[in-house]
Amino acid sequence: MSTPETSRFVRLRVELVLEVDDTDAVTKAALQRIAGDPDLPADERAHAESAVTEDTAEALAYIVDPFDLVSEVPGIELAQASWSSEHIDYDPDSPDWDLDEDDAAQDEENGLG
After folding, report:
1. Dihedral sign, CA of 90, 94, 100, 103?
2. Residue 17: which residues within 8 A CB-CB, separation 6 or more?
3. Which of 5, 28, 30, 36 has an alpha carbon within 20 to 30 A of 19's alpha carbon?
4. 65 falls in which pLDDT band (50, 70, 90)?
5. Are 34 and 52 in contact (CB under 8 A)?
6. Smallest Cα–Cα separation from 31: which of 52, 12, 17?
7. Is 0.90 topped by the overall pTM?
8. How far is it, in rounded angstroms, from Cα 89 to Cα 12?
9. Distance CA 47, CA 42 (A)
10. Closest of 90, 34, 40, 91 to residue 58, by C-alpha
11. Per-domain residue ranges for the chain?
12. Per-residue pLDDT at 73
């Protein structure tokens, strides 16, 4: 559904909760990605290596790239992306982790709920 008033830009929100079973493997993958970046200046490379070695969440932020998620989707071009990762306390049985909760609130704001 496209009309002249409809923006061509779409915000895609994705929230993932990942369970890390092997921190060494995650760190190693992040270090490999950093090592494979020829455009990364030496001082930034040293900082990145230190960050991913000290914090698994930082390592994941270096591995997971939004461009990788959409680069092969036909008909789109990534205009802007930001992402972060953090350690969290997670209880899948807690109502605080109802992933549809944000969607329901957004639907109500848009008069859809």
Report:
1. negative
2. 88, 90, 97
3. 36
4. confident
5. yes
6. 52
7. no
8. 25
9. 9
10. 34
11. 19-75
12. 94
- Give the 3-state secondary structure of the chain: CCCCCCCCCCCCCCCCCCCCCCHHHHHHHHHHHHHCCCCCCHHHHHHHHHHHHHCHHHHHHHHCCHHHHHCCCCCCCCCCCCCCCCCCCCCCCCHHHCCHHHHHHHHHHCCCC
Stronger pLDDT, 100 or 96, i.e. the higher one:
96
Is pLDDT of 95 > 80?
A: yes
Quick one: tokens of 65? Answer: 């790239």
pLDDT value, residue 101: 58
More confident of the two residues 90 and 2: 90
- CA distances to 10, 11, 48, 67 from 80, rounded to whole Å, are 11, 9, 22, 9
